[in-house]
Fold VOC family protein.
Amino acid sequence: MSVLGIDQITYATDDLATSKRFFADWGLHLAGEDAQGLRFECLNGCRVDVVAMDRPGLPAAIEEGPTLREVVWGVESEADLDRYARAIAGDPGFFDSQVEGARRIGCTDPNGLAVRLQVSRKRDVDVTSAQMNTWNSRNRVNQPAPVYERATPIEVGHVVFFVADVKAVEAFYESRFGFVSSDRYPGRGAFMRCAPDGGHHDLFLLQLPSGKRGINHVAFTVRDIHEVFGGGLHFSRCGWDTQLGPGRHPVSSAYFWYFRNPAGGLIEYYADEDQLTADWQPRDFEPGPTVFAEWAVDGGLDGNTRRQKNVEGPKGAFLTEKK
């Protein structure tokens, strides 16, 4: 079987109090906390741990300051763990042991990141998502599309890293775990999915001319485009800073909204990414602003006026009303 997706991520930060407020506002459930860290969960049980940077036993960081320290991928069975353990047994940092009462295997990828696998702890969830009406497909009848007051992320959908050698890291995930390349920026970036059938990418690797290593962003899947907007507006009302969005990616077709994350890098709400099969042929793209975003709002929307930030909102009950 293939890797199923991201089961858990761990951030290390120097400000647990701010991170606690940040991830609660983001829409995660606080499942536990102590003096050394916080445990959050998405709707399907995908876990986000935020721990103190001086907590003993943390994997080494790939960059200075608050950042992502490890990614735990889920698999279906113990037999899968056996198979992947054989594949990574010769890699740096290999281990096979019990963590929190369950078996976990892991190693260090060529970029220096702690990579782990465990039998998935995520659970199936039944959520209602908006149906879209198009010219030739009327899927929503006698039912208005939803308006969300805030987001409740379903899971961590993908992670994006700056890597020193994109070809080496891409080859590692392909050969060890069976990841499949979806699209590429030749010599600069690789979009990878866990299995031939799945969403456009679970992992994106980006090589900068500087050779910088680190986290670019972590993306959380929400139900639909309306939850991207509702979640972003709520998060904006809470006072957190937009990096870019809302907008739409032409490469994966997903709608997005990025915010700055005090625990490291950026954080993204996204929905409506392309679904691919083994018949998909990877495409090559030349990096550029219009390749990254078909359209995007620079600086975000104000959660109170519901308009672009620093733009005065309407005063009357109707747009046609004048002062």
Observations:
- The chain has a mean pLDDT of 95.
